[in-house]
Design brief:
Shape: globular
Number of strands: 11
Helix content: under 10%
Distance between the termini: 25 Å
Strand content: 35-45%
Order of helices and strands: HEEEEEEEEEEE
Length: 124
């Protein structure tokens, strides 16, 4: 059939389809949401701490759930970026639907970059 509906009874919405709808509703933009401490960054010596918060990156919701420390190289002239890379495989422990089920999300990470801040999305 040449037409489908993702949000109907007995249908399954994939993360890709949900992100597409979220991105369109948000004007196909990325940005920090007013949640948590809005990813506030503090620097002490060569350690940067990214505080809690959420960001939408082209429809993908990413959350820093606890302050995250990043060690900076000496003489770094750049920025930190949250990057979504869908080519990385997520892993799981336990069995889906059971209390011991827990996914480890490898699609998102904070990186040190030497160029301008980029909230990017790898569409794979």
């Amino acid at each position: 059939m040449a037409i489908t509906m993702y949000t109907s009874d007995r249908a399954f919405v994939t993360p890709r389809e949900f992100a597409s709808a979220q991105s369109a509703l948000g004007g196909d933009t990325s940005g920090v949401l007013k949640r948590g401490n809005q990813l506030k960054i503090t620097v002490n010596g060569l350690t940067a701490t990214v505080d809690t918060g959420q960001v939408i990156i082209l429809g993908r919701l990413v959350e820093v759930i606890s302050p995250t420390k990043i060690t900076l190289p000496a003489n770094l002239n750049g920025n930190l970026a949250i990057v979504v890379d869908l080519s990385k495989a997520n892993t799981v422990q336990g069995q889906a639907g059971q209390p011991n089920y827990y996914p480890t999300i490898n699609h998102a990470r904070i990186l040190k970059i030497r160029t301008a801040l980029f909230l990017g999305h790898n569409p794979r």
